[in-house]
Amino acid sequence: MLESLIRYSIRHRWLVLAATLGLIILGAFSLMRLPIDAVPDITNVQVQINTEAPGFTPLEIEQRVTFPIETALSGIPRTEYTRSLSRYGLSQITIGFEDGTDIYWARQLIAERLQIARTQLPVAADPVMGPIATGLGEIYMYTVEAAPGALREDGRPYTPTDLRTLHDWVVKPQLRTVKGVVEINTVGGFNREVQVEPHLLRLDALNLTLHDLIHAIEQNGENRGAGYIEKNGEI
Q1: Starting from the edge strand earliest in sequence, which strands make up the sheet with 90-97, in order?
Q2: Percent residues over pLDDT 90 in the chain
Q3: Single pTM value for the model
């Protein structure tokens, strides 16, 4: 059979050359359209739960944060393993699921369990699920810089605080709407802060406490939805 195939290829060599050329063109076309990843993502289906608790030691994190969350998350269907890491002020729990598990289904079950776990955690601890991404995912780094000689509307040059504010309130929200973007982390710059330095003697003269001052600041900075004012039956 092999001899017959060779004799046929020799007799119809132009047909064989045309078929070979067609396969080369098809291969080149497929190569241009085929997504190739030099480092394929081999991570299994997993969900991370990160909990920040400033001021807690690793032992306190393990006893008061990590252990209650792990207990609440135990018994979730299709779970393969659970591992945790307790550091100063941070608890990280990773739950791995069987291959083929719907990641959104897994996150929904974990979100329901976290609602129960929150009642057993310290007030400062708030567990948050990590993004739907892995360490082998694509990471794009960029910087926000002011053009040479660029000035603000008031005539002053841009400061690191201005650039950080511009990124967090303008650039970052727009990038979140781009398809395929999972999470955006900000590094550098300075967060804009408003610091209040109370005069204790004046507070005492007005018969006010620090708690009253904190409550007034919280009420003043509270966000509320739009509404209307009714006066004498008129709006």
Answers
A1: 79-87, 90-97, 46-52, 126-129
A2: 34
A3: 0.57
